[in-house]
Amino acid sequence: MAPRILIAREAGACYGVERALEMVDGAAEGLGRVHTLGPLIHNPRVVADLAARGVSVVSSPEGARGDTLLLRTHGTSPDEEARARALCARVLDATCPFVKKAHVAAARLASEGYQVVVVGEAGHPEVEATLAHAPGAVVVGSADEARALPELRRVGVVVQTTARQALLAEVVGALVGRAEEVRVINTICEATSGHQEATDELAREADVMVVIGGRISANTTRLAEISAARCPRTHHVEGADELEASWFEGAQTIGITAGASTPASQIEAVRERVEELVGA
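== 4-hydroxy-3-methylbut-2-enyl diphosphate reductase ==
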């Protein structure tokens, strides 16, 4: 009997990604030369598809001088945005609204005199953009890093939108003992939490899990980690062409989930390819 193929109840492109893709589609249709400031989303296949349509990636606003520029979903610094608006014919802000919320929260905390701590992955473009909105802010990626901070009087915490709730709790727990006041604004995206919970739920049931999304995508990587903790036969792929028949040998239930930068078309392509490989 062919195995069951199940897709997580919450999987794939989130609101912010869908919004950005709609914006770039509209721009590519009639706004001349179009660029994105950094990869629009962390999905190399989508970025490659956009490049084939003439939408190129630039590393600075200067690379889009006189043209149309989209600010990536992960956001940018106030300085870069100002330069973009001065240099480019049009600037379309594709920053995810939930990322914007983190920027605003960080800036507000800084203006109120808090030492801002951004819980997340150092070097990630979203985290770097958030830091830029709160001068003097620091990034913390673990409870140990939080404990290594000097003792502070007033700490304001915001979070990378794709971080784990458990990480936030661990870091806050470590900060509480090092500061007189800790104020937390939980900026983790609801879609991120939903994806993670649904992946954990499905991985408990599946014999094999396939996680779809860019390998440079933080939220997809976390889904793969969550899945592997429950289902050792977890495979992280960027597309259907990476699937191998041997992965599914003996499986009765195959689970599929996808990161927030993965369009529905890529999920469907993977599902169809799994069906071909297992004879479903």
